[in-house]
Every structure is written in structure tokens, then in C-alpha cells.
Design a protein that fits this description.
The protein is α/β, with parallel strands linked by helices and 639 residues long. It folds into three domains: 258 residues, Rossmann fold (3-Layer(aba) Sandwich), CATH 3.40.50.1360; 56 residues, no CATH class; 234 residues, Rossmann fold (3-Layer(aba) Sandwich), CATH 3.40.50.10320. The protein is built from 21 helices and 17 strands. The strands form three sheets. The chain has a seven-stranded parallel β-sheet with strand order 1-10-9-6-2-3-5, sandwiched between helices. The two termini are 19 Å apart. Bound molecules: fructose -6-phosphate. Fructose -6-phosphate (F6R) binds next to loops.
């Protein structure tokens, strides 16, 4: 992957190696931080070039999660490298309608919070569609917005995100290529995606004002950002599919100077990434062979051991045939590789040959440290494996990284407060808690006491679940990492204090196994920050001798699952174990029945987890392996 801030990594359109599948220039970075820095650098360069010519720089700007790091970097460039915005004029893409400017949900608020309040832009140069314009004046207002852009000579640069509907701005499916700025009804999927920050879909506005497709396409330069695996399908559709009003972002195929800036996860479905053998000659290493053979088996609906030379040739894998010669040799090699990932002994099997097992035999009793970003990810994502580790005699510790307090609703908190009050009617703190909860009208403005109560509720749900699975109380650790404790959706950046908490616990336990959430698709980013803290801690501890004897395993499950070719350890579950896992998840009562942070999947966590575990088992069976009820999957992290 390209991750260097060099011109090679960011060639302008026209000079890129087009594949026969791709219709839009795109660049893939290791992560969103790297990609955002490069985009911010391009914007900064444009502003400076214009300054040198005494010209205005007209920027089209987007909101949402995608551009946040670009704005952070622009603010840094302003503070540390003297980048001035005095010659900058901005036009934002859109605004919800109706929407007062001062609302925390307004794009007006967002832009000031993330960019305008921190740079020297002239207030009169800021243009954001106004969500308070009376309906009767909307048409004229929108025409005037386009005219104003024209009067500035058009947009020099347009920054875009993309919605899962394929919208750019709020140009939802059905938008016409010639559309100008206008009033538009939001697609239900767009409203679902916005629901967490509005605390429920019923609070999300139904309409918006958006810059039109024509307005966007007239920009001299366009950069679209997409991060994370939830964007992968729409990115593939937009870059490789036909141009259609059903996916408005495909209109960008017509624009001669557009670049999509992606991270690895968002690029995952592109043909050249997912199945590179269909695009070019490949260097066939063990990993690529496994990935391609699993894919071939899924395409042909044949088990691995039944694949023939004809299949390999018909599906663009003749290069592999040429290299390896014999299909049966490849089939057996890959079959064995997958077979060796399966183990009912996630902590290693005592007195058994461990040459081909995912875990070592010794020591027989291992110290295991399971990190869980929220108090429930442990049982949701690896409840079956946790159960086995305990019953197979390992010393299992669980560390809950955050309190998870904001995911407890006020109604749930009130219920618990009322129970305490029943037993302690004289307790003034509880009485105040009840009044505060009853009077509260703003969702994310919990008092410290309310937050503490909510955290305690989650803590005790976790303790109950682990009691059921047989984990002793002294092995349960609540880290309450400070980055999370803002009482709001937006978290603080990861600090040394956060990393130290994780690091100190690892150093104290000296685990033989660490399990961590590698589940980076959670909608509010906490899992990613929690994993970054673990990676940083492991990096610092690497020189310690106990780390030579420690293996790190990454689990997924709450939001998505590892692909079969990525799995290094597959722990099967019997039907009874599936039920035990379900019961353990049920102890997390406040996270049932339409939780606040549902993400893209409307199903409850236990349903999602069971379905994913069952799907993994089906996939293994279809490849020709044993037929299990469910499988939990892990990928090894090498440090
Ligand atoms: C925002 C906008 C939208 C977003 C898109 C992606 O001004 O116009 O098109 O860019 O909905 O949103 P995020 O970045 O939050 O995934």
C-alpha cells in the first residue's frame, strides 16, 4: 500500500495505472491519518499558490466524519507553519433542513468547531447553506447560492465524502447530473447512518439543502475521501460500476480531475485489491495463494479439494498454475493451511504435538489477558473462546478498556436509581440523581454522578456475565481509559495516560496470550483508539523478556468478521456452547432492545454475533472442512 507523502503516492489523475475495471483515479493509504495529511497538504499548497498570485482560493467543503482529520491538519498547518486563510472563500456542500445554526447538529456548528474557529478566515468569506431560510424563499435562496459560487469564478477545489447510498453532498439516488443547489429529501439509509449522533432516527431531519451535482462537477479539482470498511461496497460500485443516477457519485467518472483518497479498508472491495489476479500478473506468495484459492472455491461453489486446473484457468489464475504446476498440490496445501487454523484448545492443547496448531502446548496453564473496548465486546465477540479458556484451566483476566457509560439510556439509569432509592430513601445523592435524570432534556449532558451510575450499571452487567462464565472477580479489571470520559460522543485523543493504563496491566499480568478487538468498523471509533493503545503498549514492552512468550490475537464480531483467508485461529462451538455464549451476552441488559449505538446493523448484538459465528462455520464447511455449529475467528498480530 502507498503510505509515503510523496508525489509517487499521489500522482495526479491521468498518470495513474488504470485497470480495466476502474473509471476514477484513486490512491490508497495505510490509514486515514496518512491520507488526510496528503489532502491537507494539497489544499495548503493551493492556498499558498493563490496567495502568491494575489488571488482568492475558493474551496468547497464537506462535513461528516471523513474530512475531520483533514481539518485537524489544516489547523495544525495554520498554527505551526503559518498557513493563512485570509485569501480563502469557502462554500459548504450542505445543511440539514430545518436546522438552526446554533444547534450542535448543524453543519454550521460542525464547520466552526472543526475548522473556522481555529484559523484566520474572514467570517464574511464563509458560506454554508442556511437551514433557517423560510420554505417559500428556498428556491431563490438556492439559485443565489450557485450564482454566488459562479461570481467567485467557481470552486478551485471541492472536498467530498460519500454516503453509503452513493450520495455526494446530499445528492441522493435519483439526483440529476444537471442539478443545481436545491432542497432535497434524505434517503432512509442516510438518516439511519446519522441516527447515532442524533440519538435515534426519529430526531434526524428528513430534508436538507445541498449543492447540486452540476455545481460540484464544475469544480476545477475534486478530492473524495472514504475511510473504513462500511464504505468499501459503495466505493467499488462508484469506481467500477456504470454511471447512473442511482449512485450519484458515479457522475464523478465524467470529471477529468478527480481523485478518491481511500484507506485500506475502504479500498478492500476494489477488484485490483480483492482479486488482484484478475487485473495483473501477481507475485504468488503463500498468503495470496490462500486468499485466491478460498475465493476460487467460493466462486465455483466447490470445496477446495475438488478444484481443477480448468477452474484455475477459467477464473484468471493461470499464472498460479504456471508457477505451481499441479492444482492438487495447491489444493492440499491450502486445505491443510485452513485445517490447521481449527482448534478446540485456544490456549494450546496439553500433551499434544503443536507443530501445526495455532497455539503452543506449553505452559499448560497460560495467563490470558482479554482486552474488551466496552464492557460487553468480550462476550459478544469471543464468548465461546473465553468459556473454553476458563474451563480448560487457564488464568483468564478481562480488562474493560472504557466505562461504556454513554451507551446507557437515561431510562435505564433512572430504573436503577429508583431501585437504590427504594432501599435508601434518605440518600440525598440518589435523590438528586433521580431528579437530574427526570429533568434532563439534552441527551449528552450527563452530570458526573449520572455518568458514574451508568458506568456502574455496565460494570455490574460485565461482572454478572463473567461470574456466569466462571471468571473470578479479582481477574476483572476496569481501566476507565480517560480518552473516553467526555460524557459525549466525541472523545479526547489518545493520551500517554491511556497507554500507561494498558501497559501497566500487561506488565503486571505478564500474559502468555493477549486478545484484543481488531474490529475497526464500530461506528464511533472507540475500538480503533483502544487498539491503538494496545499496539503502543506492546511496542513499548517489546524489549521485556516475558513478551517473547506472548502471542497476540485479534478478534472481531460485533460489527464485522474476518474473511476466511485472514483467519489464523478458528475456535469451533457446539450448539450448547452457542447457547452459553448467548446467555452471557444477555447479562448486558442495557445493551439490548435498540441500543443507542446500533451502527449499520439493526439486529441485536447477540443475533449478529450468532449469525457471524454461524456464517464462518458454514464458510469452513463449504471449503470442505468439518461441519460445526459456529466458529469464532482470530487473526494473529505479529509485533
Ligand atoms: C457532508 C456531506 C455528505 C457526507 C457523507 C459521508 O457535508 O455532504 O455527503 O460527506 O454522508 O459522511 P461521513 O463522512 O460521516 O461518512
Amino acid at each position: 500500500m502507498q503510505n509515503k507523502l510523496s508525489s509517487i503516492a499521489y500522482q495526479p489523475p491521468g498518470q495513474f495505472e488504470e485497470t480495466r475495471y476502474e473509471k476514477i483515479h484513486n490512491v490508497i493509504f495505510d490509514n486515514s491519518v496518512e491520507g488526510s495529511k496528503v489532502v491537507a497538504a494539497e489544499i495548503a499548497q493551493l492556498i499558498r499558490d493563490k496567495q502568491n498570485k494575489n488571488e482568492r482560493c475558493v474551496l468547497g467543503l464537506a462535513t461528516g466524519s471523513s474530512p475531520i482529520k483533514v481539518y485537524e491538519e489544516l489547523v495544525r498547518l495554520h498554527n505551526e507553519e503559518g498557513l493563512s486563510f485570509q485569501n480563502v472563500v469557502t462554500f459548504n456542500l450542505d445543511e440539514y433542513y430545518p436546522m438552526p445554526k446554533e444547534s450542535i447538529h448543524s453543519y454550521h456548528y460542525f464547520m466552526h468547531q472543526h475548522l473556522f474557529d481555529h484559523v484566520d478566515i474572514k467570517p464574511e468569506n464563509i458560506n454554508i447553506p442556511d437551514g433557517t431560510v423560510p420554505k417559500s424563499e428556498l428556491i431563490n435562496y438556492c439559485i443565489a447560492y450557485d450564482k454566488k459560487i459562479e461570481s467567485y469564478g467557481g470552486l478551485d477545489f471541492q472536498l467530498l465524502g460519500i454516503g453509503r447510498t452513493g450520495h455526494i453532498g446530499f445528492n441522493e439516488p435519483g439526483s440529476h447530473i444537471n442539478s443545481g443547489t436545491r432542497f432535497i429529501t434524505l434517503d432512509p439509509l442516510t438518516r439511519t447512518d446519522a441516527a447515532p449522533s442524533f440519538l435515534g432516527i426519529e430526531n434526524v431531519p428528513r430534508a436538507a439543502i445541498t449543492m447540486g451535482i452540476k455545481t460540484i462537477l464544475q469544480a476545477k479539482r475534486i478530492v473524495l475521501l472514504a475511510w473504513g470498511n462500511s464504505k468499501a461496497p459503495i466505493i467499488k460500485r462508484t469506481i467500477e460500476g456504470d454511471m447512473t443516477s442511482d449512485v450519484p457519485a458515479t457522475y464523478l467518472q465524467k470529471h477529468p480531475n478527480t481523485t478518491f483518497v481511500l484507506d485500506e479498508e475502504a479500498s478492500m472491495e476494489l477488484t485490483r485489491i480483492k482479486t488482484p489476479w484478475l487485473v495483473k500478473d501477481c507475485k504468488w506468495d503463500k498468503e495470496l495463494i490462500k486468499k485466491s484459492v478460498v475465493w476460487l472455491s467460493q466462486q465455483t461453489d466447490k470445496s477446495v479439494l475438488k478444484l481443477t486446473e480448468k477452474d484455475y484457468n477459467a477464473y484468471g489464475m493461470s499464472g498460479l498454475m504456471a508457477q505451481e504446476g499441479d492444482p492438487y498440490h495447491i489444493n492440499i496445501q491450502v486445505f491443510n493451511q485452513i485445517q490447521h487454523t481449527i482448534t478446540g484448545w485456544p490456549g494450546g492443547k496439553p500433551n499434544a504435538d503443536d507443530t501445526y496448531r495455532p497455539e503452543r502446548e506449553k505452559p499448560h496453564q497460560k495467563r490470558v489477558l482479554i482486552f474488551s473496548p466496552h464492557p460487553d465486546d468480550d462476550v459478544i465477540s469471543m464468548g465461546g473462546t473465553l468459556d473454553r479458556l476458563v474451563s480448560q484451566g487457564h488464568e483468564v483476566h478481562i480488562a474493560y478498556q472504557t466505562s461504556g457509560s454513554i451507551a446507557v439510556s437515561d431510562e435505564q439509569a433512572l430504573k436503577f436509581a429508583e431501585i437504590i432509592f427504594k432501599y435508601q430513601p434518605e440518600n440525598k445523592t440518589v435523590k438528586k440523581l433521580i431528579t437530574d435524570l427526570q429533568l434532563k432534556d439534552k441527551p449528552f449532558e450527563d452530570t458526573i454522578e449520572i455518568r458514574r451510575l451508568k458506568a456502574d450499571i455496565r460494570r455490574h452487567e460485565a461482572i454478572a456475565a463473567l461470574r456466569y462464565l466462571g471468571v473470578p472477580k479479582e481477574n476483572i479489571h476496569f481501566l476507565d481509559m480517560p480518552f473516553y470520559e467526555t460524557g459525549a460522543i466525541k472523545k479526547k485523543p489518545l493520551s500517554q495516560e491511556d497507554i500507561d493504563l494498558v501497559q501497566d496491566l500487561i506488565a503486571q499480568i505478564k500474559p502468555h496470550q493477549i486478545f484484543a478487538a481488531g474490529d475497526l468498523a464500530d461506528p464511533h471509533g472507540t475500538h480503533k483508539v483502544c487498539l491503538d493503545a494496545i499496539y503502543a503498549a506492546i511496542d513499548n514492552l517489546k524489549p521485556e523478556s516475558f513478551m517473547n512468550d506472548c502471542r497476540v490475537w485479534l478478534y472481531r464480531g460485533a460489527w464485522h468478521e474476518w474473511d476466511v483467508h485472514q483467519i489464523d485461529m478458528a475456535v469451533p462451538m457446539s450448539p450448547d456452547q452457542v447457547l452459553r455464549k448467548r446467555k452471557a451476552i444477555f447479562f448486558h441488559e442495557t445493551q439490548k432492545d435498540g441500543v443507542m449505538f446500533q451502527g449499520n446493523d439493526p439486529r441485536e448484538f447477540w443475533v449478529r454475533a450468532e449469525d457471524r459465528n454461524r456464517q464462518t462455520a458454514i464458510k469452513y464447511h463449504k471449503l470442505g472442512l468439518a461441519d460445526y455449529a459456529a466458529i469464532e475467528a482470530f487473526k494473529r498480530y505479529y509485533f
